[in-house]
Amino acid sequence: MTAAEESEAFVELWDELHHQGDLGIGSYACVPQIVRIGQKRAPMTPDFFALIAVIEIERHENDNPEMPRELAGEYSHALNLIPELIAKASPPKWDQSMISSTCAALAASKGNRLLARAYLEMNEDNAVPFLREETGYEP
Fold first, then answer.
1. Measuring CA to CA, how many Å separate 27 from each of 61, 64, 73, 94?
2. Coil, strand or helix at 22
3. Which of 60, 78, 79, 90 has its CA 20 to 30 A from that of 36?
4. Is 130 helix (H, G, I), strand (E, B) or coil?
């Protein structure tokens, strides 16, 4: 599977598992399966990590269903494998979106949903004004 095909597959998964912040139990069951795929074949696109991050962020918001007890252990184990998957990720280029999505997935996997959301939202265009305002940084 090429990076383009992988990206297309994750866009379809994204549409099915996450709609405007609404998740279902299937979204939670999918995370361990996505991680298993990443263990067998190094993730190549930002979508792999972004989908996991968004599911973990959104499962605590928008009145989404609670994690079923029978999925909790496997889901938690999958999140614990995120650092390993980031280390073996093999995109052709680590561009802005790959860096943002891996940082978001790492933060989400460690329970920091606020930073996970910030990493997903932050880009080079809004980072400079933010840093300028908060720290006086001038590139």
1. 14, 10, 15, 27
2. strand
3. 60
4. helix
Q: Which two tokens stand for residue 84?
A: 């390993």
What is the average pLDDT across 107-117? 97
The whole-number pLDDT of residue 116 equals 97
Rounded to two decimals, the pTM is: 0.85
The burial class, CB within 10 Å (0-12 / 13-18 / 19+), for 134 is exposed
What one-letter code names the amino acid at 62? Answer: N
- Enter the tokens of residue 24: 């279902």
User: DSSP string spanning 26-77?
Assistant: HHHHHHHHHHHHHHHS---SHHHHHHHHHHHHHTTSTTPPPPPHHHHHHHHH
* Alpha carbon distance 97, 79 (integer Å): 20
